[in-house]
Each structure stands twice: as C-alpha cells, then as structure tokens.
User: Fold these one by one.
Assistant:
Number 1:
Amino acid sequence: MTTHLLDPGYDRATALLLIDVQNDFADPGGALAVTGGDAIIPLLNSQVAAAHASGALVAYTQDWHPASTPHFARDGGIWPVHCVMATWGAELHPNLLVDGPTIRKGTAGEDGYSGFSMRDPVTARESPTELDGLLRAARIERVVIAGLATDYCVRATALDAVRLGYRTSVLADGIRPVDLAPGDGERALAEMATAGIEVVGQPEAPQ
Ligand code: VGL
Ligand code: ZN
C-alpha cells in the first residue's frame, strides 16, 4: 500500500484546487491523455481528505468546451478535440474523490487555461470565472494547486492565483505535464517558483 504523508498545512483559510482531473486528460484512453495522469489520483484523494479534515475548502475545475471552438486544431487551434461539454471525456475521473464545488471554464468557446479567467479567442478579451468570487466569499487567503496539466492549466491557474493575491503552493507530486515540447513541465515549474509559488514536495536539485 502507498501512503501519502504530504501535508502542505491545510486550514480554514486555505483551498485545495484540483485542476481538470477529467477523463480526457487523466484516463490513458482520453483524447488528450497526459502520461501518468491517472497515477496522481491516489495522492489527490488523500489531499482531499486531509484538506477536509482541517476545514479547508476543496474546489475542482473542468475544461468544458463546446463541440466546435478555435481551441481545437480542426477549428484553427492546436489541440485535439477534448473535454467537450457533457461527454465522457469532460467528466471528472471516476476514481477522484469529489467533495466540493466545480468551476467550468471555456464554456462559451473561450481559450483560457486558468481556472480563474477565460480569454475570447477572437477578441482576446479576458473575463473571470466564478472561482475568485467563490474563494473570496469563503475568506480564502491561500491556495494549494494540483491536477492536470503542469504546463497549461496548472501553470496558468497558479500564476493567476499569485496575481490575485493568494499565497500559492503547487504539489509537485500531484501534477503531470503535457510536454508538447520536452522540458515544458520543468520549465513551467521553474517559472512558477520564480513567480513566488511554493513548490511542495519538489526534491532539491543536486548542488
Ligand atoms: C489543458 C490543453 C488544452 C489543461 C486544457 O487542462 O491543462 N491543456 N486544454
Ligand atoms: Zn482545453
């Protein structure tokens, strides 16, 4: 049995944000399967339990696209068709412990990767999701982020969280990269650390 003792310090002012743990990313048969995406789920579930035990909020995001959007390669973007709203691929992975609100992004065809904001692919206008309002209403000051994928939605959500004034941690063992280019995941982690995000569980680089 594997035990997960990672304790990032949950309390009532902290929210655990689990990003896009959906079939299309986390299931090996998903349309945009992230290597090892399902392997993080036991750790995520133990984090959900630890967060709830300490009175922390747990919230989930879903990438939630219309069937046709400039986000998809066939409509001018870069991605295979994935997470089309109300399909199997868009559902949260069945092994994930879901106990908290879910925020959907991309709903009107927007392109943003962050759980906090969406970007109109034609006008480039940014608009917020409900996530910031939800966290402010719960008096959250700190967020702990894990999920998929390191180099896209985890990165964008974490960078937005810092900009919005939250103390922000990312669980290094609870994320996996798409790695469209080799090293994208590592570069995203370095960028997050530079932005003031605490990377929890990351072994120190050898001196
Ligand atoms: C994501 C690529 C396309 C993500 C979403 O959740 O990281 N990546 N859409
Ligand atoms: Zn997407």
Number 2:
Amino acid sequence: MIYDLIVIGGGPGGYLASERAGGAGLKTLCIEKANVGGVCLNEGCIPSKTLLHSAKVFDYAKGGEKYGVTAENVVLDQGIVIKRKDKVVRTLVAGVKAKLKQNNVEVVNATAAIKGRTAEGFVVTAGDSEYIGKRLLIATGSVPSLPPIPGLKEGIQSGFCLTNKEILDLKEIPECLTVIGGGVIGLEMASYYHSVGSKVTVIEMLDHIAGNTDSDISDVLLKEYTKKGIDFKLSAAVVKVNADSVVYEKDGKTESVKADKVLVSIGRRAQTSGLGAENIGLELNRGTVVVDDRMRTNVAGVYAVGDVTGKMMLAHVAYRQAEVFINNILGKKDVMRYNAIPSVIYTNPEVAGIGETESTAKAKGLDVEKVVLSMNYSGRYAAENERGTGICKILTDKKNQTLVGVHMIGNYASEIIYGAAIMIECEMRIEDIKEIVFPHPTVSEIIREGIFEL
Ligand code: NAI
C-alpha cells in the first residue's frame, strides 16, 4: 500500500496534520505507538489542567471568607480528581480518534521507524508491517530530559522520582514533594500539590523561576507562592538523589531536602532515537529535526512539526506548524513565524505572555516604551481578587508605534492573551488598538488601560 502521506506520531502536530491531509483527499496513514493525542492530551496539558481546576475549586472553597463565604470540612478527594482527569482524557482522545476516522485517516498503533527509500517513496516499518509514503511527516514529540545525576535513574526505577506522566496519577498526596526545576511543569505541579496539602520545595538552578517569563512577572509569581508556603531554593543545582532526599549545592554549600516524592521537570528533549533518521540522511541538530520555516527538512518530501523540531515545545506551536506544513504540500504559500506565540503558566494566579520581554527587546536593540499597571485597574479583577497582586506589562516599539509585548499575572490572563496575539500578529498600530471596544467590566480591559497610559 502506498500512501500520499505517512505521519509518524499522533500528538497535536501529527493528528492535526493527518486530519487536514485526509480531509484534503490525501491517502494518509498516522502511526502512533501509544494513544493518539500525544503527551498533550494524555500526560500533559489536558490532564494537568484538569487537576489544576480541582485545586482551584478547593482553594476557593477554603479561602471564601474574604468574599463572605464560609464552608466547613472542605475536603479534596484525590481519587475522584484522578478519575475525573482520566474521564476528560478518554473523552478527548475519543474525539481525536473520531475526527481522524471522519477524515479517512488510517491509524496504526505501533512504533514506527524509517527504513529507507525506494523509487516509490519512503519505507516505514511499524510492528511487523512495512508502509510506503510518498511524503513523510515526523511528529514524534519529546521526552523528559533525565540528566546523569547520581541516584536519579534508580529513583525513577523505584518510583521515588516521577516525571510529568506519573505525577498526574498519584493516588495519594505526598506529604513532602520536592520539585527539581522551577519551569512550567515544575510550577504547575508545585501549585497543584501545594493546594492539596503537600509541603512543596522547588529546587531551581537559575536565580529566578519560570524560565523566559518577563522578570517582573516571575518575581510576582515567586512572591505569591513563597507567601503561600512553597519553599524555593534558587541558584541551586541538584547533585544527587538519595532514597529519601535530594542533595543540592547552593552558595558553595551542600544541602539536602527530605521528600516522599520527587518530580523531575528540568526540560524535555526531542524524541528521535530509534527513528532511523540516518537511513535517509535526515539532518538532526542535537537530536532535533532541522526544519525551515515551511517545515521542510533537508530531505525533499520529508517534513517535521512539533516538539521534535526543538523550536518552542508547545502544543499550539505544533498546531500552527502542522497547518503551515499542510498548506505548503497543498500548494498554498505559508510560513511559520514565532514572534507572536503566547505562553501560559496555569498556576493560580495564571501567568501569560507574548512577544518581546524587556530583556529580549533590549537584546534586539529595540527602542521600547513600557507601561506596568496593577491588574486592579480592571474593575472586574478588583471585584474578584481581594488584595490581588497581579500586574500587566505592555511594551511598544517607539519607532513603529506598534505593540511588541504583553505580559500578565492574574487570573483569566490565559484567556485574554490571544487578544494581544492578534494585535502583535497583525502589527496593529497603537492608534488602531485604541479604537477597539473591550467589553466592560472584564479583566481584558487591562490591555486597553495600558495602551491609553502610553
Ligand atoms: P522548562 O524548560 O520549562 O523548565 C526546566 C527548569 O529546570 C529550568 O528553569 C531549568 O533552569 C531548571 N533546571 C534544569 N536542570 C536543573 C537541575 N539540575 N537542577 C535544578 N534545576 C534545573 O521545562 P519543563 O518544566 O520540564 O517543561 C518542559 C516543556 O513542556 C517546556 O518546553 C514547556 O514549554 C512545556 N510545557 C508547557 C506548558 C504550558 O504551556 N502551560 C505546561 C507544561 C509543559
């Protein structure tokens, strides 16, 4: 059987590309070794957001007094939380399967490897079968980075150390949770387990949390979570994992923290081992598939999208890359741009940002004007957040009079940031943004407030 397109990997990049290709009439095969939906749907974005919503409901129930609401004996049942999470995942996976079927995509549940190339196309093995595709899309995603820290491998084997996958399935809430890495996964899971009662310690190598997030925003997040009771060890490098503790070096001293469970969230790496890239001369750079802005690799007819490209490891980047890929193979010119990609951390309060931060703008030599406002400038934010500490930072390009960055901490930020994405993607002028009518009262009005402060 010769396919027009073989897609390796059924995560957000792979399943969206498969659906679109099948929908456009291409004979499409999608090979996925686990569940369609990938990490995002099965062990990442969706399950973590389900857990975080339960934590938010729990926090609201416990902290209602300041809003005039008291409740007694508020209990979180971890068993029910996990069951609900599994149900949400099952429903969405079924939705993806149905959509693939609706678009006539054939799905094979096996591990694929590229065997080589014949005159007919690329040969891919999966299970005991061989398939030939005229075109190939690699969407194999990423796996957690597990550096050679002494004791870490043994910790993973014994179940003491967990990755993003196992942390979402803990039947019991650990009394003490130590998180290695204060990035996105680390902070979201620290947020959940702190809310549901664990004593949480976060060990982060850098002197700040939340990676590339604008520094004023990550400072507010750090203060909020320190106030809530999470213990942050910054500028601290983990050097060893023991059977019941994590050892780290900070300020030249060796210290350790006891733990019942350890989450290892120190980044992810592209999944290309065993793929057979060498069999077709596919160019890799430190394990990631090298692509251009149309998702083409160095081998004509072979493309890649998603985490495996090592660009920005976000499901929404994979979606857009998949669209760029499909448009290009269908003859419609489209290029991938990374300047208006929103990023969100689903802590409570949420963090969302897009475009340049002050430091990236400076590095690029942009002449920017900045406005930083308390989120309390939004009436709805003030109404719903007693003593809220949220802020919104707006950065504009002085020369072009356009918006280049928006960074927020405060709830609903995740749902508002796409508005800024439109403004940046469309290179709207500040004068034009001033004419947009925002619904009142909404938290989104903070962007309007900021723009009028310029
Ligand atoms: P990350 O790159 O966000 O954070 C890893 C952190 O670990 C960094 O701050 C790094 O300095 C620190 N680190 C590295 N080695 C260390 C060591 N030995 N000791 C202490 N700290 C160390 O990676 P993370 O959190 O694992 O997330 C992986 C990917 O998943 C990211 O690319 C992220 O974008 C994506 N993701 C996105 C989410 C969202 O959009 N809300 C949610 C969860 C994950």
Number 3:
Amino acid sequence: MTRPFLSRSPLRAASLRCVALAVAAGFFLAPLPARSAETLQDVMKRRELSQEDILAAAKTYVPTGKRDEFIAFSSGGQSGQVIVYGIPSMRILKYIAVFTPEPWQAYGFDDESKAVLAQGRINGKDITWGDTHHPALSETNGDYDGQFLFINDKSNPRLAVIDLKDFETKQIVVNPIFQSEHGGAFVSENTEYVIESAQYPAPLGGGFVPLEEFNDKYRGGVTYWKFNREKGKLEQENSFAIELPPYSQDLSDFGKLASSGWSFTNSFCTERYVGGIERGRPPFEAGCSAKDTDYLHVINWKKAEALVKAGKAKKINNFPVLPMDVAAAEGVVFLVPEPKSPHGVDVTPDGKFITVSGKLDTHVSVYSFEKLQQAIAAKKFVEKDPYGIPIIDMKDVLHTQVSLGLGPLHTQYDSRQGIAYTSLYVDSMVAKWDYANGKLLDRIPIHYNIGHIMAMHGDTVKPRGKYVVALNKLAIDRFNPVGPLHPQNHQLIDISNDKMQLIYDMPLPLGEPHYVVAIEASLLKPTVRYPVGTNSRTDEISPYKTKAGEEKIVKSGNKVEVFGTLIRSHITPEIIEVDEGNDVTIHLTNLERAEDQTHGFTISKYNVNGSWEPGKTASVSFKADKAGVFPYYCAEFCSALHLEMEGYLLVKPKGYKPTAAAAAKEAGTQYTKADYEKQVGVIKDTQKTIEDVVAYLKANGYEKFPTVKAQVEDALEQCGRADGPKAKSEEFAAKQDWTNAMLWANQVWQFQVKCADVGLRAKDELNGKLGKQPHDQ
Ligand code: CUK
Ligand code: CUA
C-alpha cells in the first residue's frame, strides 16, 4: 500500500493550522480604523490639486467595489493582444491573447490554444506576433450586441475572432490572396461580413513579379469575410474579394441605414509610385503624395455578393475574386477623389454621410450618400481611371468641407445629432464639429499627436455620447520616465458639456494601440464557468474530460497519456512516472464550480504551463527527454493549501531498475496515536466554527442572494468531501496504523479549512448585501 504523498514539516503545519483556525473563529475581525479626519480641502492642499483636478477625479473615480459604465476593447498594437479596460475609471481588466503566445492564459502553451495559433501559420511558418490595428464589435441592426470581437493583423494579413462569452480567441484566418492589409476589421450592420482591405499592392495570391510590372500585375483589393454567427466562425468558403487597382487601399467602413448594402474604402498612393532610394529614385513618400487627391472607393457589396453567387468570380488560391473589369462594368465599384493621403473614412450614424480626413489637408470632407446615388444613377462620371473604373466628380457629391486644423485623421460621432469628433494629428488636438452644417464647435489640446479617437458606440447607428478617448502616438513627458521606450497614452475626455474637458491620462505599456471600441457594460454577459470538460477553444466537450475518481495514466508504446483533475488543493495524479524519451500528454480538467477558482499546472524545467478556469479541460504535451525528478505544481494562488497543490514527474533514465531495498522504504514523518488524537480534537473545534458560520448565514437568509448561495453550496461541497477521508482515517485507527490514520484525519481537516474559507467569503458578501461591514458578526 503506498502512502499519500505528504511531507510538510510539523511546525509549518502547526502555524498554518493556527492561522486558519483564527480566521475560522473570527479572531482577525477587528473593527475598521476610524475614518480619516482630513477634509477635501486638506487633501487638495497636501497634494496640490486644483478645483478642476478634483472635478476630473470625481468624473473618473469608480468607488471600490463599483463597476464601470463602458468596457473598452483596445488593439494591443505590436503585442498581438487586445487590452480590455473600463471607462471612465480606465482600469485595465484583461489582456486577451490573440496572435501572440501569452503564458497566464496558457495561450500557445496548451494544445487547444496551440491549435488556434496554428490556424494563423503562413507558408508553414509560425507567426508569433501580430500588428493589431482595428478591433470591431459584432453588430445587430447597426449597434453593438456584445457577442463577438474581431481584430486584424496588419503585418501578416489575418483576422481573429474573439468570443465575448469567455473573452477567448477562437479563430484566426489568413487572407488567401493579400500580402499585407490594413483596412480591417469593420463589420456590416448585422455582422454578415467583416471587411479586410489590402494595404500595399502586390500580386494577388502571392508569387514573384518584378516591380517594373507594377501597373499591370500588382493589385489591391477588399476581402469580405462571411461570418457565421451561430458557429461564431468566419467562413472562407462563403467569403469573397473584389480585385482593385494597385492603389494602397486603406481604411474602410460599411454603410448603414440609408447607405445599407454599400461600403467605402479610401486609398493613398493612387500615383502608383514605386520608390527605391538605393536605385536612385525619389523615396515612396515623395512619389506617393504628389497628386492633390486620392480615391474613395464606393462599393456596392450587395451587388458584388450577388455576382459572386452567380459565378462571376475567378478563383485565386481557390478563393473567389470578382475581377476589376467585371466590378466596373456591373456598377460595383466607383471612385471619388478625396484630399490626398486620406486617413479615416467614417459613415455617420444615420448612414447619410461619409466623412473623410486628409492627413495633409486641414479639411474634413463630408460626402453625401444621396448625391453619390444620384450621380451613379445618372451615370454622371468625369472620366475613368486607367483600369476602367468610373470616377465621380468630387463637386457633385460633396456635402461640405470643414477646416478643422492640421492633420485630421479619424472621426467618431456623438449621441447628439450632427456632432462629430475628429483627431488632429499634427495639431495634437481633438476637434468637435457639426457635420450637417459644416461648423467647427470646439477644440481641445491633447498630449501628443493623436491617432484614432473613439466615442462610446461612436461608430454605430446609436452613439452613446459621454466620453471620447484620444489614442495618442507620443507620451513624451506625461508619465514618470521609464527609459527611451515610453508607454502609449489614452486620454479620456468628457464630452457631456459644450466644452470638452480632459479628465484622465492612462499609460498603456503593451504596444501601440491603433483603435479601440467601447460598449455599454450591461450588453456584455460573459460566463463565469464552463460546462465541466469544455475545450474552451472549440466550445465542445473535450474527449479528454475527466471526472473525479476517473483519473488514470495510460501507456502505449512510447506514449504516455495522463487523464487528471484539478481541485482545491490537489492535482490528481500526484505522481507521474514515465521513461526517458516518452511522449507525454497530460489532459487536465478543473472540477471547480466556484467563481474565479482557476488552477495552473506547470512542470519545472520542461516549459510546460497551463491555466484551467472552472470547468475547462486542456492538455499539455512534451517529450520527457531529460531523466530526473521534476516537481509540478499549481501556479495560481487558489487556496490556503495552494503551495501544497504539488506533485512529482519522475523521468526514469533508460535501463533503470528499482532495488528491493529502496522500494521497502517509507518517505516522510511517522505519526503516533497522540498525533492522531490531537488532530481529531482540531477537527472537532473547526467543525464548531463552521457550524457557527452556517447558522449565521441561515439566520440572515443567504438563500435570497444567488451569488452568496453559490458560494455556500461550494463551501458545503468542500465539507462534504471530508466524508471519504474520515472513513479511511477511522479504518486505519482501528488497525492502529497511526501514521495513515493521522494523515487521513489531516485531510479531513484540509477540507474543513476550505469549507470555512469559502463560508467566510460568503458571509462577507452577505454582510455587504445586507449593508453591514464585511466582517460584522
Ligand atoms: S490607422 Cu493607426 S492611427 Cu491603422 Cu487606423 Cu489611423
Ligand atoms: Cu490550485 Cu494553486
């Protein structure tokens, strides 16, 4: 009979015992210290705060325990992640791993998430980063619905899908025809399609073509990725692209309401200039900004979709691409001049206007969708571009142009009709203006060189107003210095009054976020646990799901497969013995039902690491190529006995034979009858304190509060787990095997401690709900 593996020092066990008992008995529940006697004036003076500072603080401060009104999803720039934060507090809540391995979420560490990253491989190469630019929330009837988030990778033309049920990345798709991209992700009103437009022209589908053939063989384009909402997946087989001239197609936006069925994509370098400083040619930047205007591409995507369905597309890399000449002849694509080197293209909430900013022009141009339709219907075109695409005269379709300042980039909309906010990169300002009547209303300096700007639901049919966030390219002197690489800076601006007020600076240390979207927090309904055994990357029940008592180690040939479980505070199995050279896969299931009870699993020196949220099943695989003794443990401080959530991987060297003498030895301390009886006494005392807590909970009607009730159920479940060890302990005591009797008795007490721990947490929460102090008796 093997002994349970426990080797804690009696001293440490004794002190732990004291702490847990003291907590259980309420010894640490001293009353809170008296409130500070300082007044607001005192604090203002001491911290040198102005009246305006105090006002700003009051506008952003979210009191302890309270939550934010909006949740922002920011591109993490070069980190290949998404940053989630609350508005107005600007507190960071999560990093979502998307294109880049991330250890805490085990992204790129467990087999399930490795499979997601593998979808993003290009030409057989792992791409372990992403230049994330534009997050986009799924929409229903033109407003965010809180279900999905999309984000693009500019460098390696890819899109990712994040499910907001659990904030995990579920899918990565690689653009089958582009070599780079920028104008993604933008979604249609009901998330039928997600746009990804090419950036730098290249031969569609890849392959080498000399630059001399740029005009004829290099192409741009826009891809419309079909989204299947039920499956939560982008479907390549139902997606298509439109071939476009070798202009650098840039940002895009879908039409909505009045402009439903259309999309808009701007472009730069319509000069089709090819640089080459080393070949003695003037650089790209000179040749790409030589003309006064570039082209806004006006696209009837509904018609394009119908033509593709009717078989008018050609296949490139087996992907349907609507040829440029077909698109031009069938009235799918039109061009309208726009001030040179434009940046953002943003459709107004009613869908009636399209605003375009020219980086090198002080104006924002407002195009009328109605006028566009009239010109198209009347076939009023000034000429065709070199590829036969009709060009509409800018004068015919312009609603107004407003001079806002230097370097206008991106525009977002207010809840108030006709009000827009535009970022001014060169001026380092935000402009508030009236796009209907063409008037500048207010400007506010920001710090420094703003790129994107974002208002609450500011690109939907129903903007919510209240705040805009400025995404600044440079922080310079805004924060404590941290070396030559500075953090990025998101500045929060209050827009609820006529005058804008800057109220918060938020450093972001992860990469250069290009864009951010914010949704009303109440529209998000993420889950707190998975159905037991879920592969969170596919949302299916994993074939490796393991229930309590069904843990096993299966060896077959050179393969070792472990089916294990995690629960406070043990990993089952606790000893894994393999032979040097074995291929090992460890499938673990977190059996917890309690909120926030995540467990980790890591094997020292084997680069094995994972994270298991309640209910999740995930697997780690490695080759046991080094013989030795390798501790494994839970890397998440999950409970009082977290450090004891441990085990051993024993990798036996080739040809190892155990000796009979070694096999007969017993590890660890041996215990006496007195030790056993002392432990039984501790169990009795602890039981008493548990009963007191339970009585308190019952007397105060805990069942009326679902979250408290869930905690109490979890606590009682922990207590219930003591039954098995108790029976074993008594069996061994009857046989006078005091070591085993004492160890099983101690296990009974471990479950009591967990029970008391959760019970006290439930009591604190209950007191909070009843308006008492957390530790009130
Ligand atoms: S782009 Cu970066 S500031 Cu990629 Cu949307 Cu304008
Ligand atoms: Cu589980 Cu620490």
Number 4:
Amino acid sequence: MADSVSEQRSRPAADAADPATALRCERVAREYSRGRDSLFSRGGDAPTVRALDGVSLSIATGEFVAIAGPSGSGKSTLLHLLAALDTPTTGDVTVAGTDVRSLSSRQRTTLRRDTIGIVFQHFHLLPALSARGNVALPLIERGVSKRDRRARADELLEQVGLGDRAGHKPGELSGGEQQRVAIARALVSDPAVLIADEPTGELDTETGQRVLDYIEQTASERAVVVATHDDHVIDRADRVIRLRDGIVVSDA
Ligand code: ADP
Ligand code: MG
C-alpha cells in the first residue's frame, strides 16, 4: 500500500455518482431538542439547538480529512452523521453511495458493520475481553469462524505494533496501547471509511503521534475522517474542514 499513497493523496474531485466518493453531505442540518425539562425550555417555544446548519462536503477514498473547530462547533455531530449513527434533520448524507435517510435503523446497522470503522476518544473497549477479543468482536456478527477471528485480530494487532499484547486486557495497557487496540478493532473488517472522534485527545504528544501514524498509514485505501483539536493531526491531514457554530468556515 505504501507506494501508491502519494498519488492517491492528491485531492480528487469528489462527486456522489463517482465511485471514489466515500462520504457526502448535502445541505445538512442537525437540530437537537433541549428536552422538555431543560432549563432552557421553561415556558418557551419548542427549544432546539442547531448543531449543524447547511453543511455540504464530499470526501473521497484515499483522503485523510481533519474536522477542526472549537468545542461545541458540531464536530461530533458531523461524525455521527457520517458514521450513520444518526440521521440529519434536513439534507442528505450519503455513505458509500447509499442515502442514509432511506435506510431503516437495522439497515443502518448493517451499513456501519460493513462499511465503517469508528474510533472514539475514550477508546470504548470492553474491559473483560483481551485486546484480541476486543479486536475480533466485530467479526462475530459477520459470522467469521473463531479460528479466523483470532488470526485476523492477531494480524491487526501486529500491524499496530501490539503483537505481543494480544492476551492483555485493556486495564493492563497504556492509553496509547488501548487506542491502538481501538484502531485495530475499527479496521478489522477493512472498512471503506474510518471515522475517529478526537482519537489523540487523551494521549500525550508522542503517543498521539504514534497513534496518528497508524491512522495515516491506513488512509490510502479508505476515507479517513478525524475530528480534532490537535494541531499535530491538523498538520498531517490532506485536507482540513473547519467548523464554527455548525457551519463550514473553510475547507482546504
Ligand atoms: P463538538 O464535537 O465540536 O464539541 P458537538 O457536535 O458535540 O460539538 O455539539 C454541537 C452543539 O450541539 C453543541 O451546542 C452541543 O451542546 C449540542 N449538542 C450535541 N449533542 C447534543 C444532544 N444530544 N442534545 C442536545 N444538544 C446537543
Ligand atoms: Mg466532540
């Protein structure tokens, strides 16, 4: 994969009909209700927060995109939509050519399982399982045999430099190691899209850089989208989409 990276990294023109377009948003808005009992809702109109407001973007296979912006600017909301964990209030989100709003919740689950790997800031590993067990988990619902799951998990752990830690539980691993297990788990099904929400947010600079190395290495063969505050991530991305108050203020 290494040799084709620089070619593929030149920014492709992305279009929904183009098979290279992995992710697309068109005039997407997402509103949250404040909730009936909220402080903000007493006696007023139906109170909503507009977390995203008219976001349009396309991301192609082979791109490594950072979503930057201050806290509360809508980064996580956008990632949830791109990961088909959520649907927009208005507008369209297309993942690997499929309009997410046209899917039932069950179909969205299948789309996520087959197409998307997700990495969270707080790792979200199961504490009772070994690193290998955590990485192999997504393969169970895909019906992969135990033997093949184990072999595939070990292969992925090897790739993220944790071949000798496969039997350790998350509690026995450092933060950076846990995040690399989470990356291995996100990639175990070889998804077309990798989405990471502040993956280096809990890590010191050096550990964060190492985690970033693994994310970057995988970007030539899929679309990678990372929400971040971290300048190291922003510096290494092919493209930076900046959000402010739910609006794209720059995309370059
Ligand atoms: P970021 O990830 O950039 O910090 P978020 O997408 O988490 O931003 O949040 C964007 C805005 O939407 C913020 O004003 C936040 O308070 C609001 N918000 C996010 N999630 C919810 C929710 N589940 N319910 C209500 N408001 C929310
Ligand atoms: Mg966030």
